Amino acid sequence: MSHAVPQMWGTLLFAVLMSAALVACDWRLALASLWVLPASVAVIVASRRSQDALSSKLVECRLDASDGILETIECAADIRACNRLEGVEERLNRLFEEQERMQGRYEFAASVAFTSARSLLQAGFATFLLAAAALLAAGMLSWQALLLFCLVVPRLYDPLVDALSNMLEVFAADTSNARLSEIENHPVAQGSPEFSPQGYDIVFDDVGFSYTQGSPVLEDVSFVARQGEVTALVGPSGSGKSTFLNLIGGLEDADGGSIMVDGCDLTALKPADLGEYRRRELGFVFQFYNLVPDLTIKENIEVTAHLSKNPLNIDDLLRSLGLYEHRNKFPRQVSGGQQQRCAIGRALVKNPGLLLCDEPTGALDYKTSKEILQLMEDVNRTYGCTIIIVTHNAAIARMANRVLRLRDGRIVEDELNESPVAAAELDW
Question: For residue 272, how many C-alpha atoms fall within 13 Å in the half-sphere facing its CB?
Fold first, then answer.
C-alpha cells in the first residue's frame, strides 16, 4: 500500500503532461487517443460502491468465523463430552465456506472492473488508428506527426494499466482503514464493577433426554434452581450429570419437557438463538482448563470479553481472582490452580447470569481444590450469579444452597440446604 499511492499519482501526472503535449502537437489525434483515459478511470471509480459493499460483507463473514472459533474454544470440553464435534465442525465449515464465497465475489468484482477499464484503454489505440487513417486520406496529417503519435501513445497506455490497478488497491485500503478507524474510535469498554443479574431461575419440568432411542440418559427430571444460589448436582459417573449441564447450556436438545431460564423455554429456541443465549448469558468452567497456550493469562480472559455488551473490568477481575501479578505469564508458567482460576475468569468476564461448572476441582489436589471452591464462593457472593456445580464429590455439595442427587438419570433427592458450610471448612 505504501507504494501504490505515489505510483498512482505519479502515473496520472505523467499522463496529464503527455496528454497536454499530444494536444499541442495535434488535438484531433490526441482526442482520438486520449478519450479512453477518463472513461477507464470512470469505470474504476464507478465500481467503488460495489467494492465497498462487498468488502463490508467480507469483514462481517470474517468476524462471524472468528466468533465461531472463540465459542468453540470456550465450549470445547462440553462439545467433546457430548460428542458434538461433527456438528460444530459443520457449522465452522459453513462459516469458512461463506467467507471464501464472499472473498471470491469480492475478487471477481475487482477483476471485472479492472478488465473493463484495461479493455477501454486498448480500444483507444484502435480509435487512434482509425482517426489517423482518415486524416491521412484527407491530407490533413503529416507523416512526422503520425510517427510521433505511434511512438508515444502505446507507451502512455502501459503505465496507466498499473495506475488503474493501484487505484483498486487504494479503494480496498480505504475500506480497511475505515474499519480500523471504526475500531479505534469505538468507546473503550471500561467494564462493570458490579454484577446484577435479573431473574435467572432455572426450571426443569418433566425433562427427558437420550442419545439413542430406547436408552434414556435423563427421565422425568423436574427441579428449580433459584437466582443467585449455588446448586450442586451430585451423582456417580454415568448418572447423567454432564448431560444435565449440557441441556442447561443449550448444547443438547431435550426429548421432552421444558427448560425455562429467565422465563424463556430453551427447548423452543432456534439454533442461532441458542448460540446467542450461550454467548451472552452463560459462563462455562470445565474440569480441564482449555486455555490457549500461546496467550497470556490476561489474554485468555480477554478473548471472551468482546462477546458481552457489558463485560467486567478485566484488571479488577484479575485482582479478585488473585491473578493480577501473573497476568503476563503463559498458562505453562503457572500452577494448575492458577490455570483453573484463569478459566473461571474467562467464564466470568462476560458478566454471565449463569455459571456452569463441570467437575471444576476434578483435576486438582485437595489443597488447590479447596482454594478453587473458596474462590467460587467469593464469586457467588461478589457477583451474585447463579452457579451450578456438577461433582461426584458429595462433600462439596455441603457448600451449596440446594443439592440435587442423580442416579440412573433421575433426581432421587432434592434437598434445600438452609445452612451451607463455608468452603474453607469442607473436608473429604
Answer: 2
* Burial classification of residue 69, based on how many CB atoms lie within 10 Å of its CB (0-12 exposed, 13-18 middle, 19 or more buried): middle
Consecutive H or E run containing 283: strand 282-285
Which set of grid coordinates corresponds to residue 231?
Answer: 446448586
pTM for the full model? 0.54
Q: Beta partners for 285?
A: 357
Q: Is 247 exposed, middle or buried (0-12, 13-18, 19+ CB in 10 A)?
A: buried
DSSP structure string for 43-70: HHHHTHHHHHHHHHHHHHHHHHHHHHHH
Q: Which long-range contacts (CB under 8 A, 24 or more apart) does 409-416 make?
A: 409/216, 409/217, 409/218, 409/219, 409/221, 409/239, 409/240, 410/218, 410/219, 410/220, 410/221, 411/221, 411/222, 411/223, 414/223
- Read off the C-alpha cell for 35: 478519450
- Strand spans (E) along 130-266: 202-212, 215-225, 230-234, 256-261, 264-265
**Per-residue confidence at 195, pLDDT binned at 50, 70, 90?**
very low
- Distance separating alpha carbons of residues 267 and 221, to the nearest angstrom: 14
In the chain, the amino acid numbered 257 is G
CA separation for the pair 428, 422 (Å, rounded): 14
How far, in Å, CA of 97 to CA of 173, rounded? 24
Q: What is the pLDDT of residue 253?
A: 83
Give SS3 for 399.
helix
pLDDT band at 159 (very low <50, low <70, confident <90, very high): confident
Residues 6+ apart with CB under 8 A from 295: 303, 330, 331
